[in-house]
Design goal:
Layout (H helix, E strand, L loop, with lengths): L1 H8 L29 E5 L8 H13 L7 E5 L5 H7 L6 E5 L3 H10 L2 E4 L10 H7 L3 E5 L2 H9 L4 E4 L5 H17 L17 H14 L1
Parallel strand pairs: 1-2, 1-4, 2-3, 4-5, 5-6
Helix pairs in contact: 2-7
């Protein structure tokens, strides 16, 4: 709906816009299928707008304050900021840069992780890794703007928000507190309990495409 609202602001009539979710080829998973580890992950491009410096500072802050113990932060992906981010991590043994991973390998990390964090400072429309994380039993923590905020409203027991701030130090502290809160949350229900997840199924995608053709 976030992108739809932006298109409407450009003057496109609402009745000319149809929202169709990108489908995922998946089988809906249950929590009992996963053996979770004390692991926090980021998946995406290592570029400035993704806010990785904020995530690293938040993780190091929690470690210095001894507020999390035994957790690792895995950063999956590559990009122009990698060298700078590696220097920022201060050689911390609990922060691992895994570089580019094939899709199946990235999903395996999501299946092990407790928490996916996407600390983007830019507007994101709808990163599909959020749905993939959801289906792999992850809790998800995202910045409270753009399409990611919409996703949190659909799955409030699984997806958590933290406050964007133009001051990166304050934003890191916001994120640190939100990470602690998200990690403390206990998830008991299976993702298949959510009717909303059907919106990302192959069947729903075909239904919506068929509707478009019949309406033409």
């Amino acid at each position: 709906m976030f992108l739809k609202s932006k298109i409407e602001l450009d003057g496109v009539p609402t009745d000319k816009i149809l929202l169709i979710r990108n489908p995922l080829n998946h089988q809906i998973c249950q929590l009992s299928h996963f053996n979770k580890e004390p692991l926090i992950v980021f998946v995406g491009r290592l570029s400035q707008e993704k806010g990785l410096d904020i995530l690293i500072n938040a993780f190091l802050y929690l470690k210095r304050k001894q507020m999390i113990k035994g957790y690792n932060l895995y950063i999956i992906g590559d990009g122009p900021e990698r060298e700078k981010l590696e220097l920022m991590s201060e050689g911390d043994e609990n922060i691992l840069f895994l570089g580019y991973q094939k899709h199946e390998a990235a999903l395996n990390y999501l299946a092990k992780a407790e928490l996916l964090v996407l600390p983007s400072i830019c507007y994101e429309n709808f990163p599909m890794v959020m749905v993939e994380a959801l289906l792999n039993g992850c809790k998800i923590l995202v910045t409270d703007h753009g399409g990611m905020k919409e996703f949190a409203s659909l799955f409030p027991q699984r997806v958590f928000l933290f406050s964007f701030d133009r001051d990166k130090t304050r934003m890191s502290i916001n994120l640190a507190g939100a990470m602690l809160q998200a990690l403390s949350e206990k998830i008991n229900e299976d993702i298949c309990d959510y009717e909303n997840i059907y919106e990302w199924s192959d069947n729903r995608f075909l239904e919506r495409i068929t509707e478009v053709y019949y309406d033409c």
